[in-house]
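Troubleshooting log. The previous structure file for this entry was overwritten by mistake, so regenerating from the original sequence record. Sequence copied from the archived sheet and checked twice against the printout by T.R.
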Amino acid sequence: MKCYCLMVLACLAAVAAAEEYYSGKFDNVDTHRVINNDRLLEKYTKCILNKAETGCPQDALELKKVFQEALETTCAKCSPQQQVKIKDTLGYLCKKKRHVFDEILAKIDPDQKYRAAFEAKFGKLEGCPST
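Regenerated output below.
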């Protein structure tokens, strides 16, 4: 009986720990490949900006579900790996496709009220203007 109780507690602890972070389902997506592919980047951008109702890549739909919350909470539910990925992806997007970066930021943070908190946590994005 003790063994069973310990197994149940271990399972509950594992589930609780797993819920601390966003899904790691897309942690290994090559975001640089997406950014460098104009057609694919356009699909992602249209989906994230609510300009497309159909044809959104599954990855973009998943991102769209958590984007606003992650921004507002300064990525409180992001795993350490996701935090590295986010900083790398946003920095790369800013450098390579600045107009897309600006368009997304204008939509999700028009008053730039989350930018300072982001930079305090992740550091300034290389090649991007600060607040």
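Confidence is low (pLDDT under 50) at residues 1-18. Archived copy saved in two places this time.
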